[in-house]
Design brief:
By secondary structure, the chain is of the alpha+beta class. It has one helix and nine strands, in the order H-E-E-E-E-E-E-E-E-E. It has one helix spanning 2-26; strands at residues 32-35, 39-43, 54-61, 67-72, 81-85, 87-89, 97-99, 104-112, 118-126. Strands 4-3-8-9 form a four-stranded antiparallel β-sheet, with no helix packed on it. A three-stranded antiparallel β-sheet has the order 1-2-5, with no helix packed on it. A hairpin with a 3-residue loop joins strand 1 and strand 2. The protein is elongated. The termini are far apart. The model has no long low-confidence stretch (mean pLDDT 86).
């Protein structure tokens, strides 16, 4: 009886540890979008303070499927937080792009997830 109980508890602990490791290893980069009066504030900091690397940022209009803005491998620039608003947007190091109120956009971020592994995350936002 105690041996079966011990084996059952060990198996349960092993499964829990495996699940936690899987979630930690394969999680997406941190993407927080906070609605603001003017539009949205995007924060990509790991643990709220570390800028750990973004290799690709893309903003896609969900109705047309067209890419509105893309920054690939931003060199010498840490893009960790920026604002998006209806109208013209200027997020260095990219050219100005325009967003519209009431339109849904997918923000797609490829970057370090905090474990040194680069993964892709997606958040839908509307201004």
């Amino acid at each position: 009886m105690t041996r079966k109980f011990f084996l059952g508890c060990s198996l349960l602990a092993l499964l829990a540890a495996g699940f936690i490791a899987y979630r930690f290893f394969y999680r997406t980069p941190p993407i927080r979008v906070e609605p603001r009066d003017y539009g949205a504030h995007v924060d990509l900091h790991f643990l709220g303070e570390y800028c750990i690397g973004v290799s690709d940022l893309q903003l896609v209009d969900t109705t047309s499927g067209k890419t509105v803005w893309r920054v690939h491998e931003p060199k010498n620039t840490e893009i960790c937080e920026f604002d998006l608003r209806a109208g013209d947007n200027d997020v260095p190091p990219s050219p100005t792009f325009q967003l519209h109120r009431g339109v849904s956009y997918d923000l797609i971020v490829t970057g370090n997830n905090g474990t040194g592994r680069y993964t892709t995350g997606r958040v839908r936002l509307q201004l």
